[in-house]
Amino acid sequence: MEESRTIGVIAIKGGVGKTSVVSALGASLANEFNKKVLLIDANFSAPNLALHFGVVNPEKTIHHVLNNTSETAEAIHKTEYGFDVMPGSLIADKIDPFKLKNKIKNLKKEYDIILLDSSPTLNEEMLATMIASDNLVVVTTPDYPTLSTTLRATMIARQRQTPIIGIILNKARNKRFELSVDEIEKATGIKVLAVVPDDIRVLEALSKTVPSTLYRPKSDSTIEYKKLAATLIGEHYADRRLKTKLKKFFWPSIKKQDINRTILNKQV
Fold first, then answer.
1. Residue-wise DSSP of the chain
2. 231 contact partners, CB below 8 Å, separation of at least 6
3. Segments making up each domain of the chain, as ranges
4. pLDDT digits (tens, 9 = 90+) for 66-85
5. What is the pLDDT at residue 75?
6. Which of 33, 37, 102, 252 could join 83 via S-S bond, C-beta 3.0 to 4.6 A?
7. How far is residue 61's CA from residue 52's CA, in Å, rounded to a whole number?
8. Where does the pLDDT of residue 122 fall: very low under 50, low under 70, confident under 90, or very high at 90 and above?
9. Rounded to whole angstroms, how far apart are CA atoms 174 and 58?
10. Are 18 and 139 in contact (CB under 8 A)?
11. Which CATH architecture describes the domain 5-267?
């Protein structure tokens, strides 16, 4: 990757695991690929990103930056997990979310990747994330109610002319009643870049305030995040686990998301 990028992670529905995706993806980029990563809580009305890392009551936050009462550097908190985070204030005065882009633009000189954890509601906060981002990824789950909100999110993003890199299909259980990758792609017109299996250990990692990709570095969900992280920066990640090699030998097949990542990788 030749220059820094700001990637907005969006979803117009709570409960799809968007913030956990931001945490896991940020940890993968920083630790597996040695990138300098900043996570920003752009869910201004209900910020909770920093709580995933045990940052409970930060003195300076993105709200102070947007209110012009703090410099951006003062609101950045280093974590023990290899990346930095700019948290939000749980209780804060009203802010103008559309200042976000200008307030963080100089940070691109300091970081390889900036991930914005957007509001899960279609409001000014999500629009501010879209405007501030170079690219977007959309988080969804394999069910019709979430797909309907995903369609809405992608439509608004297109109207704002912010390129959508692809979809992260989260909490997949590989059940016949779930929407397939093909069905989601056909409905949205957007490629699925990762299918993250549902894993109760993700909640366990959250209880320990540790990113799931660091808590279980060899789990199926972690490997999928590492593959996605590699694609976002134009690199390749090889899954060298024995069980993966055995699957390829006895049941050789190529998943649609693997093909999509290969195509995107050549475009980055």
1. --S-EEEEEE-SSTTS-HHHHHHHHHHHHHHTS---EEEEEE--SS--TGGGGT--S-SS-HHHHHTTSS-GGGG-EE-TTSSEEE---SS-----GGGHHHHHGGGGGT-SEEEEEE-SSSSHHHHHHHHH-SEEEEEE-SSHHHHHHHHHHHHHHHHTTPPEEEEEEEEE---TTSPPHHHHHHHHS--EEEEEEP-HHHHHHHHTT--HHHHSTTSHHHHHHHHHHHHHTT-------HHHHHHHHHS----HHHHHHHHHHHH-
2. 193, 261, 264, 265, 268
3. 5-267
4. 999 999 999 999 999 999 99
5. 97
6. 37
7. 15
8. confident
9. 40
10. yes
11. 3-Layer(aba) Sandwich (3.40)
Q: How confident is the model at residue 268 (pLDDT cuts 50, 70, 90)?
A: low
Q: Give the CA dihedral 153, 159, 163, 164, nearest 10 degrees.
A: 20
Question: Over 70: is that where the pLDDT of 109 sits?
Answer: yes
- d(Cα 217, Cα 237) in Å, to the nearest integer? 14
Q: What is the residue whose two structure tokens read 């409960």?
A: 15
Task: Judge contact between 24 and 221, C-beta under 8 A.
Answer: yes
CA dist 206 and 234 (Å) reads 29
Query: CB of 195 within 8 A of CB of 181?
Result: yes
pLDDT value of residue 1: 41
Structure-token pair, residue 213: 């990709």
Structure confidence by residue, pLDDT tens digits, 13-62: 889 999 999 999 999 999 999 999 999 999 999 999 999 999 998 999 99
SS (H, E, C) 81-133: CCCEEECCCCCCCCCCHHHHHHHHHHHHHCCCEEEEEECCCCCHHHHHHHHHC
